[in-house]
Amino acid sequence: MSTAVRSGASRRRRFVLGTMSVVAGLALAACGGGASPEEAAQGGGAAEAPEFTGEYDGPEVTLSYWNGFTGGDGPFMTQMVDDFMAEHPNIKVESNTVQWAEFYQRVPAAVNAGEGPDVGIMHLTQIATNAARNVIVPLDDLAENLELSADDFTEEVWDASVYNDQRYGIPLDVHSLAMYYNQDHFTAAGITEAPTDLASLEEAIPKLQAAGYATPLWMPQRWPAHLIYLSLLWQNGGEPYAEEGDEALYNSAEGVEAMEFMRGAVDQGWSPSNVDPDAEYVAFKNGEVSIHFNGIWQINDLEATEGLNYGIAAFPTIGEEDAVWADSHNFFITKQATDDENKYAAAQVFVAWISEQSGEWAGSGMIPARQSVRDSGALEGLPQAVIAEKIDTMRFLPPIPGVPTVQGEALEPAISEAVLGNAEPEAAMTTAAEQASELMKRNLESFGG
Amino acid sequence: MTTTTSAAAPAASKAATRRGAPRRGVANHGRLTPWLFLAPYLVLFLTFVIAPVILGGWISLHQWDYTLPGKPFVGLQNYQDLFDPSSITFGTFWNSMQATAIFTLASVPLLLVVPLMVALVMNQKFPGRNLFRAAYFAPYVLGVAVVAVLWRYLLDRNIGLINTYLGNLGLPDDIPWLSSVPEAWVALVGVTVWWTLGYNAVIYLAGLQDIPRELYEAATVDGANKWQQFWNVTFPGLRPVLSFITMITIIASANMFGQAYLMTTGGPGRETRTAIYEITQTGLRNFQMGSAAAMSYVLTLFLMLLSVVVFWLFRERKA
């Protein structure tokens, strides 16, 4: 950490410490898993899955449960865990909440060291990666015993947690991108209905501008810019990745068109240029932005924002077909839990119970993944109900290991350059695609296809 | 090694025997003694410095992903990739080295000169001096996260306070401090100087107070004006301190990570992604420990060369 490493010491020692701390960090981190590769290779096969009965009557166990619900979703999960423990006195659940940004670094390291979670929740996009890394174990038996099947979920979300023909995740919810709008701005501009497609958007923007909101739609160049890009790419009928998982298709006609729309929002004056990270969200909360694209996970934060009269609608169809980027929180069980038969059994009971109670989870702003839970009226009166209606149009990233980092390394910087106007959309996407494809080929190699 | 330095020996013969005994003792028992005294530090040094250096070197020769069972030995491939323009790591790595170089070149001179000026002022006698000393040092006690998040909001192009105030003064209010170069470098360097100048200033201040007052008196007697006093008394007197500050400032600047990570997220594109940032991403997010280890060795090599140059510049010149 740059200048933080300063405290009294001789010049030479400082030099050594300063320059080597990086190496030391890496080496220490590497120690965890380096010890016994063979053991690691066995992965989930360590213990036979015990017969699942839905109940756990073994000796008292403590489950380590990790998730990344640091925001408005946190209290709902805590409540559910407390309820679970009240009903299952012989299972103690120790929760550990880690920011998502750190979560995917820490979980593999911690599980490798045997100090990680037994059970936890991660994003669908990360499932394949962690399966390939042998961090998490297949849950086919659990899904079967719970009599869970694609019928109760949408096919897209159900299939996206299958890697190498095995299921590694049980979806808890789905959360997509949405369109938030400032109700007061809309009223002032005489807009009665939220835009649903390109035509109505192009109609609404000049009205808003005429009403005094010069730049009504701020186009981000960082998060969640790539989620907007992916939504548009899918709407144009494209796919971001080749099915074999060895190629990125960002520079396809569909991808370039998506990028051109995003930059176009700046060129046409819908958006100011150089929107800094998170600025568009803060500005929306301050009532400076009329239309804002963000995930439904922001609902609780917006609800709590005083003086903000906001509305929520589905992400508009700007391309030819209706599609929107979505992700899903999925339960996972780690190889660490499978070493202990009791923990393994208790973890399964935990996943089954929370999954069934996911109606309560709707309070967090998310959409329960199970049709049966949604049908039971869990979403009644909640803001995200309008988004849930579009659940069939939600698209998920394919289960290709390593894709999240590929996007972070190649796609996100390129989108930033293109939205900022430092690079032409096509050129930016071509460079990004080349870089991503190379990374994906290398991933295939190291994950053994 | 004499044990009788403080006590004036009453009898010479007695002193001789006393002097003789411990000398034999050192010879008999001494072999392990220094190591035992060193042991507490040595254990830490070996565990946290030497072992990682060796292990890091070993890792850099592999395609090392600690979550995967196979860690194939690749020899010098990771290093070759860093010097092979056709590999994908080449572009990103040297881009990040360039970012580090830009930041270091821009921040080090400022961090050497500005704190010196502050220290010279703080060394004067005036009312409220301690308050000012504390004020200049205050930002340094903040963590990088606090500093970076604070300034990120202040410097925001569209909703930031800085641009608003500039606008109120009739100056351009649309400066993209965080999303365009060179503006982003100005912001990163400025914030770093604001944050850390107090530390360098305190060291300078200690150095200034070590310079004997008589030298100034002698200079005054010789008719030297303030400026001449500075160049002929203050500056030479600060030389040892200066070389220390130069060295740690260079290393701290070359290790810049948190500010770029939190304020610009390496942007625009990856313009402000520094070497440490790139190494962290490669090693800890992409799990390419081998490549990351190779990068850190190359960075280390650069820093070592740089420190040789600094040592040479500040060497004692024998007239």
Automatic annotation (TrEMBL), chain B:
Ion transport among keywords: no
Principal place of residence: membrane
Membrane topology, from the record: Multi-pass membrane protein
GO BP term, example: transmembrane transport
Origin: domain of life: Bacteria
UniProt similarity note: Belongs to the binding-protein-dependent transport system permease family.
PANTHER family per UniProt: ABC TRANSPORTER PERMEASE PROTEIN (PTHR30193), INNER MEMBRANE ABC TRANSPORTER PERMEASE PROTEIN YCJO (PTHR30193:SF37)
Protein name listed in UniProt: Glycerol-3-phosphate ABC transporter permease
